[in-house]
Each structure stands twice: as C-alpha cells, then as structure tokens.
Amino acid sequence: MNVQVALCGDSRVLPGMAVTVRSALENCSKPIDVHIVSAGLRESDKEKLRRSWVHPNCGRVAFAEIRRERLQRFRSKSFLKSKVAYARYFLAELFPALTRCIYLDTDLLVLRDLDGAFSMPLGANLAAAVRDVAIQSRGSPGLRERLGLGNERNYFNSGFMVLELDAWRREGLTDRLVDTSIERFDALDWQDQDALNIVLEHRTLLIDSTWNTSHYERPDPLAGHVLHLHDPVKPWHARYKAKFRDSYYEQVIFTAFTDVLDRTDFRGWRPWDFMGLGRSIETVRQRIPTHDMIMGKLRRHFRIAGRNSPSPTAARWRGH
C-alpha cells in the first residue's frame, strides 16, 4: 500500500511545500500519494508542484480546495498570521476515501523513511505525534490552566502527525475541533495546535522525537530525522540569513533546504532582497496586525476591565 501524506498550503509556502514532499519522496521505501488542501492555489502553482514531485516514488497527487471563509472564524497571531493550517481539520471531509494519512507541515525536511510512521500501529489512539521540544525543555506553567490539560508535559507539536481519519469521522472530530477553536478562541495562543492538544488529549500516541526534530536541537547529521524549521522566518524568506547568522543554520540547514529545492521546479530560485528591500518589506508585513488580532485584544481588554468594573459595554464584549 502506498504511503498517504497530506499538507495544507497557499501560494506563500510553495517553496516549503515543494521541499517537504520532494524530500519525503527521495527517502521513502514505498510510493507516496500526496493530498493537498489548497487555499487559493492557482493552476500554475499546482503544475509547478506536480513538476517538483516527478520522481519514481510519486504516486497520485490530488488537490482539494477549501474556501477561505471556512477559516475566517479561527484565530491568528502575529508570529503566524496565516490560518491555512486550520484546513487540516477538514481532511476527513475533503478526502473522503482517505482512511489514514501522515499530516506534514510545509516547513519540514523529511530525511527518513515515512513508511515507518505510516505503518505504525496506533491502538485505540486517533493520532500519533511528538512531544513539543519547548515544553519538554522549559515547561510551561500556564499551559495546563490555559488549555485545561491533565498533563502539560504530554503537549505535542502538530507539525508531523499520523491521523486515523476513519476514526475521526466516527467520533466527529472535525466538529469538535471547530467548536473548540471558536469557543476557546482567546485561549489558543498556539492556534490550531492548542485545539488539537485539547481534543486529542489521551488519544494521541507519543512517538520518537526523530519524527519531528526541531532545528533548534541542531541535529548533525540530519539523516534519520524529520527536521522541523518551525520559526516564522523560513529558508524561503529574505530575512532568513539575517536572523539565523549562526554557521549551523547557514551551512547545514540552509544548504540542505536549497539542495532539495534545486531538485524541484524551483531550482535556482532564491527570495528577492535587492539592497535589503525584501527583508524590509517582509518585516513591515509581519508587523501589521490582522483584523481578528485587533478584535481579540479589544475583547480581552474589555473582559479584564469588566472584572474590575462591570459595565454594559464590558458585558456586551463578554458575550461575544
């Protein structure tokens, strides 16, 4: 049976998506079928991705479009304004024939055989994932209270997940995730990842960290890891080399990423940064708040004010 992988993306992550899947294809012992939830990808974007994945291991490539209005009710934050990752809530609906898949973020270097994860028995669990390295190393005193988790040390990173989609359908997980994301809107500092941890607590198999290794852990060699480049600044951004000046990121991570990139239809492409203008434009865009970021701050302000001095205005905000 082919390995089934799923990703979600828009035009802003095309280089990352191309590299994630290409690296998976090059390191897998079985063919891979690729399922993409598209948020406004053009036909030319899709063709560019298909050409990027021309490889003996590439099986079927399928795209399913999600309407952006289905994502509008969810929270975004300054470090990650995009809401496209929420689209994975709808994988079971958008790909009804898919019974199990590996969900991949679009900022991964997959340098090990994915069949080991795809064929992994999950028992009664609905998912498998890796504990979040930041929680394991530093802890998070407020996490248990904020999300209502029984054990915050089991908080997982959702960038790599094995998903039992038949079980998701039976248990109505899409609706539960949507409801949690809306009802707990202001509590979800890590957006969809927080909601997944709430809904899947006690139903997630925690697996070896090599399936989702943070680049901050500096693995060397990289082989044998699924490397997660989880930072708002990615190797396809003009700001990357300015932010990650360390030789490890310049010589190991960036080189590994561009080596794979140059085996895709993006070969030779690098982010535009004429006289530093690319970096400046990216920085300004990152700092502009979205509408729901502003509204969220206003809601929290009025809720705090309402606790100290109840007023009709505060009451109205608390009701939203």
Word description of this protein:
The chain is of the alpha/beta class and 320 residues long. The protein has 2 domains: 3-275, Spore Coat Polysaccharide Biosynthesis Protein SpsA, Chain A (Alpha-Beta Complex); 289-318. The protein is built from 14 helices and 10 strands. The strands form 2 sheets. A 7-stranded mixed beta sheet has the order 3-2-1-4-7-6-8. It has a 3-stranded mixed beta sheet with strand order 5-10-9. Helix 1 (14-27) packs across helix 11 (247-261). It is globular, with a radius of gyration of 20 Å. The N and C termini lie far apart (48 Å). The model is unreliable at 307-320 (pLDDT under 50).
Average predicted local confidence, pLDDT:
87
Tell me the strand percentage band.
Answer: 15-25%
By CATH, the architecture of the largest domain is named Alpha-Beta Complex
Strand order of the largest sheet: 3-2-1-4-7-6-8
Give the termini separation.
48 Å
- Low confidence ranges: 307-320
Q: How many distinct domains?
A: 2
| Secondary-structure-derived class | alpha/beta
Q: What is CATH's topology name of the largest domain?
A: Spore Coat Polysaccharide Biosynthesis Protein SpsA, Chain A
Q: What's the story with the biggest beta sheet? A: 7 strands, mixed
Could you outline the blueprint of secondary structure elements for this entry?
Layout: E1 3-9, H1 14-27, E2 32-38, H2 43-52, E3 58-65, H3 91-94, E4 100-104, E5 108-110, H4 115-118, E6 127-131, H5 133-138, H6 143-147, E7 156-164, H7 165-170, H8 173-183, H9 191-199, E8 204-206, E9 213-214, E10 226-228, H10 240-243, H11 247-261, H12 277-287, H13 291-308, H14 312-318
Parallel strand pairs: 1-2, 1-4, 2-3, 6-8, 9-10
Antiparallel strand pairs: 4-7, 5-10, 6-7
